[in-house]
Amino acid sequence: MAIYNIISSLKITDFLIIFVFTFLGYVFRFYYKYFTRPNPLPGPLPLPFIECSYLYNSGDTKNFFNLLNKKYGDFCEYYLNGKQRTLISSPEYLEKILTPSSKDDTFMIRFPHSEGYEEYGMVGRGIIVNQDIKSWRYNRHFFNKAILTPSFNNEAVKWTNIMTQELEGYWKSLGNLNLSKDN
């Protein structure tokens, strides 16, 4: 009852003042976290709520990355969808990060921790999202032995050709159908 009395005694201007102060508090917190982050890289200044999407015109990812590379160099960071992302556009740095070596685990964690991976049971499995180094090494060794062999590649090419020919046959049979409504 006391809360109802307090809320009912507020006027529209009071709600507006609360909203403005909440918004200003959010903006202050957003920029405080941005300017005091550890190891800052160069990159565009994000705006609250829309972050760096003002640079991302009409979904053209290639132009977006080219713009960032020209303006900020080989390394830069940007914010999209509530997450800080790092753009690496130099091939020699990418080779070091994406190395297939199981001895160097410096760049082992390639994806941030997500509760969704736990819900799907993907934590500790496979080679892409696996953050358990021992399990990753075993899976990586198995992956290299089983899938990266020439016989597997030849079989994959053979089946791709078979499926493409089958799909082409379906397209031809669809082309022979008379689908006009003037029957």
Distance between the termini: 74 Å
Q: Kindly state the percentage of residues in helix.
A: 40-55%
From N to C, what is the helix and strand string?
Answer: HHHEEHHHH
Instruction: Determine the oligomeric state from the structure.
Output: single chain
Beta-strand residue percentage: 5-15%
Largest sheet: 2 strands, antiparallel
Overall, the morphology is extended
Task: Report strand order across the widest sheet.
Answer: 1-2
User: Number of helix segments?
Assistant: 7
Mean pLDDT: 82
The radius of gyration over CA amounts to 27 Å
Structural class: mainly alpha
Tally of distinct domains? 3
Protein name: Cytochrome P450
GO molecular function: heme binding; iron ion binding; monooxygenase activity; oxidoreductase activity, acting on paired donors, with incorporation or reduction of molecular oxygen
InterPro entries: Cyt_P450, Cyt_P450_sf
Keywords: Membrane, Transmembrane, Transmembrane helix
Key descriptive features of the protein:
monooxygenase activity; Cytochrome P450; two-stranded antiparallel sheet; mainly alpha; extended; transmembrane helix; Cyt_P450; Cyt_P450_sf; 7 helices; 183 residues
Give an account of the 3D structure:
This protein is mainly alpha-helical and 183 residues long. It has three domains: 1-36; 40-98, no CATH class; 103-176, no CATH class. Helices cover 54% and strands 7% of the residues. The chain is built from seven helices and two strands. It has a two-stranded antiparallel ribbon with strand order 1-2. A hairpin with a 2-residue loop joins β1 and β2. The longest helix is centred in the C-terminal third of the chain and has 27 residues, at 150-176. It is extended. The chain crosses the membrane at residues 12-32. Keywords: Membrane, Transmembrane, Transmembrane helix. GO terms for molecular function: heme binding; iron ion binding; monooxygenase activity; oxidoreductase activity, acting on paired donors, with incorporation or reduction of molecular oxygen.
